[in-house]
Amino acid sequence: MALREFEHVFSFIFSRVGNRADAEDLTQQVALKALPRLRDEYPGIAVRAYLYATARSVMASFWSHRALVPEAELADEVWIDGRGDELTAPSNAVACVDRMLNALPANQRRVLELRFLRGYSLRETACEMGKTIGAIKVMQLRALHAAARVGQPLPLG
Fold first, then answer.
1. HSE-up of 85 (CA within 13 Å, CB side)?
2. How far apart are CA 19 and CA 4, in angstroms?
3. Under a CB-based contact definition with an 8 Å cutoff, are residues 38 and 2 in contact?
4. CB 122 within 8 A of CB 112
5. Sign of dihedral through CA atoms 16, 17, 20, 26?
6. In sequence order, what are the residues at sequence separation of 6 or more whose Cβ sits closer than 8 angstroms to the Cβ of residue 14?
7. Which helix (H) or strand (E) holds 137?
8. I need a labelling partner for 118 at 20 to 30 A (CA). Which of 41, 77, 101, 110 fits?
9. Domain extent for 55
10. What is the pTM of this model?
11. Does residue 86 form part of some domain?
């Protein structure tokens, strides 16, 4: 049963990494981790669930290692004294942000103000607005999409 599932596991991994060689390597790692723990008497759905959980774990490890940048590759001049104090926004940026925020419904405007203008965390924003963190995430995504539509130039013609 488990061996038949590896084609599906490979497809699952390949759809997320987009590279055949990496997908093959990761599928092999899933097999090495999962097969010693599986027994023939386990129901098919349990085997499938375990293989996919193992695949997600292997991919998480893969992406976390891939995202690391060796310290030697970091430029020395990355640190700027004042942490950006000398950077100024373009003169029309404030007007553009105001226009976008004013075009949004009140709850979407509030979530963007708290998250990006005041630097609140998701948890702080949820507490402030009396919502769940999940609701804030959805509201923030919708607000960003709406703000992007407002910020686009009107089509010609």
1. 3
2. 21
3. yes
4. no
5. negative
6. 20, 23
7. helix 133-151
8. 77
9. 2-67
10. 0.44
11. no
Contact 125/117 with Cβ under 8 angstroms? Answer: no
Work out how many domains the chain is built from and give that number: 2
Q: CA-CA distance, 131 to 46, in Å (whole number)?
A: 36
Dig out the tokens for 9 from the structure.
């596991």
Q: What is the per-residue DSSP string for 5-65? A: HHHHHHHHHHHHH--HHHHHHHHHHHHHHHGGG--TTS-HHHHHHHHHHHHHHHHHHHHHH
Q: How far apart are CA 115 and CA 136, in angstroms?
A: 10
The pLDDT assigned to 157 comes to 44
The CATH number covering residue 101 comes to 1.10.10.10
State how far the alpha carbon of 45 is from the alpha carbons of 14, 50, 59, 67, in Å: 21, 9, 21, 33
Higher pLDDT, 45 or 153: 45
Q: How far is CA 50 from the centre of its chain?
A: 24
**Tens-place pLDDT, residues 131-149:** 999 999 999 999 888 888 8
Question: What are the pLDDT digits (tens) for 52-82?
Answer: 999 999 998 888 777 775 656 555 555 555 5
